[in-house]
Amino acid sequence: MNNACHSMDRGEILNLTQDDYPLYHALFYGSKVETAKFSKRVSCSIKHLPIRVAFDYEYNTIKAVEAGISKDPTLVLDGAIFIEGLAQAEEIKEAFLKLPLKTALTNNRK
Fold first, then answer.
1. In terms of pTM, does the model score above 0.85?
2. Which residue ranges make up each domain of the chain?
């Protein structure tokens, strides 16, 4: 069982073993404390959804400003600003449920 309700580590993938789920890349911008809280909230909110999410972090303020980030924390998903500020669990889940369908690329081994 995937214990998703924790602050996710850099490079950690939520629902790692579910190769049939599409993979998204989450980049959290902000302070270490706020991004840790946010990653835990995200992982708990979406752990039962049929998606995989790879977690990464950026703590550099200059890089955040260059990326158009204005709130701490901010979640960038697959290169686009996705959620700004420390959103509540229901808001996070709803945002992920509204994602366009993305199919997983799997290896068909026979």
1. yes
2. 13-87
Q: What is the 3-state secondary structure (H, E, C) of the chain?
A: CCCCCCCCCCCCEECCCCCCCCEEEEEEECCHHHHHHHHHHHHHHHCCCCCEEEEEEECCHHHHHHCCCCCCCEEEECCEEEEECCCCHHHHHHHHHCCCCCCCCCCCCC
Question: Tens of pLDDT along 64-94?
Answer: 999 999 999 999 999 999 999 999 999 999 9
Please answer whether residues 73 and 39 qualify as being in contact, where contact means their C-beta atoms are separated by less than 8 angstroms: no
pLDDT category of residue 5 using cuts at 50, 70 and 90: confident
Beta-strand relationship, 52-58 and 23-29: parallel
Q: Given this structure, which CATH class describes domain 13-87?
A: alpha beta
Closest C-alpha to 36, from 76, 90, 73: 73
Is the separation of the CB atoms in 40 and 6 below 8 Å? yes
